[in-house]
Design goal:
Elements (H helix, E strand, L loop, with lengths): L2 H66 L5 H22 L1
């Protein structure tokens, strides 16, 4: 082998080593980003669940406030209660 071919082979081997090192680094980075994505997705799901719970709690508080207000409008309270009963009936039917 000539010196020129030997030098080309050395350069080629070095570039392959660099590409393999870069590939390993990118694989590790990708794994790290996948883990981070899963963590963020879990946090997002937890936040959505908390939002849904807070919305339900808020709706319940509004209903209680409407029913227990000192100047209760009987018809309004009755309609709210009927609406709740219908929602409960729908839930029961969906469970069947």
């Amino acid at each position: 082998m000539s010196d020129e071919n030997s030098n080309i082979l050395i350069v080629f081997k070095e570039r392959i080593r660099q590409v393999l090192a870069k590939c390993t680094y990118l694989q590790q980075e990708n794994a790290k980003l996948i883990d981070e994505k899963q963590l963020v997705k879990k946090q997002l799901d937890e936040a959505r669940e908390e939002i849904n719970q807070l919305k339900a709690k808020n709706a319940n508080l509004k209903m209680v406030r409407t029913i227990t207000a000192t100047s209760v409008n009987v018809e309004e309270a009755r309609s709210k209660l009927l609406k709740m009963v219908r929602e409960v009936d729908k839930c029961i039917n969906l469970m069947k």
